[in-house]
Amino acid sequence: MRPLIGLSPGFDLKDENVTMRPGYLRCVELAGGLPVVLPAAEDPAVLAEVMARCDGFLFTGGPDVDPALYGEERLNDTVFVSPLREKTEFPLFRAALATGKPILGVCRGIQLINAALGGTLVQDIASQRPGCLPHRQEKPGTEPSHFVTLSPGTPLARLLRAERLAVNSFHHQAVKTPAAPLLVNALSEDGLIEALSMPGHPWLLAVQWHPELMPGAEHSRRLFAAFVQACRGEK
Ligand code: MN
């Protein structure tokens, strides 16, 4: 049986329809997992059952994390927060973390994981890190727009067997101070944190780029393959 992998959904602004980008579903499926969109379970008993049934969790891209979570005011109009997403996804993450099952974070996912564990974020790269590369690319997500350097010996470097990756980039925020339990696994050429792992956790990796938009890239295939394999209970 395929491992069951729960994906955190987004919500559209107008009528709060549940949204899910197809790339996440497709990449999990291609890697041998069975993707399911997680419900916004408010009943603790339902949440517990969701956690028990899933073999792993993917925290997807989306709007900005509420700066209040790391003790800051909203910096400017570029900071966009979805209250419904905040309300539903943090309980899912905390519960998922408590299971010790594999967790993959993508884009907002890395920011959510970092903020939930006590780290802080750059709220707006353009105004707070003016020397940085453009991290919101114009090109389609199938194409890379900058390089990241993997820190030697980190879980991501070992898993991908690489020192440098060409990745896409669709973020205007980034990890500022990594949360104490997290380890930096990759930096962009301009020094932004682009990947984190959690030493001591059985399998937690989070990346700032969108591997699900580059399903043909070897590093995307390896990342999803390793995630699904870990969800299957294999090393
Ligand atoms: Mn980037």
What brief labels describe this structure?
single chain; about 240 residues; alpha/beta; nine-stranded mixed beta sheet; two-stranded antiparallel sheet; about 20% strand; globular; binds manganese (II) ion
The rounded Rg comes to: 16 Å
Number of helices, where a helix is a run of at least 4 consecutive DSSP H or I residues: 7
Structural class: alpha/beta
How many angstroms does the end-to-end distance come to? Answer: 17 Å
Q: List cofactors, ions and other ligands.
A: manganese (II) ion
Query: Averaged pLDDT, please?
Result: 96
DSSP strand tally:
13
Order of helices and strands: EEEHEHEHEHEHEHEEEEEH
Outline type: globular
Relative strand content:
15-25%
Summarize the structure.
This protein has 235 residues and is an alpha/beta fold.
Written description of the protein model:
The chain is of the alpha/beta class and 235 residues long. The longest helix is centred in the middle third of the chain and has 17 residues, at 83-99. The strands form three sheets. A nine-stranded mixed β-sheet has the order 4-1-5-6-13-12-11-8-9, with helices on both faces. A two-stranded antiparallel sheet has the order 2-3. It has seven helices and 13 strands. The mean pLDDT is 96. α2 (44-53) packs across α3 (83-99). Manganese (II) ion (MN) binds next to loops.
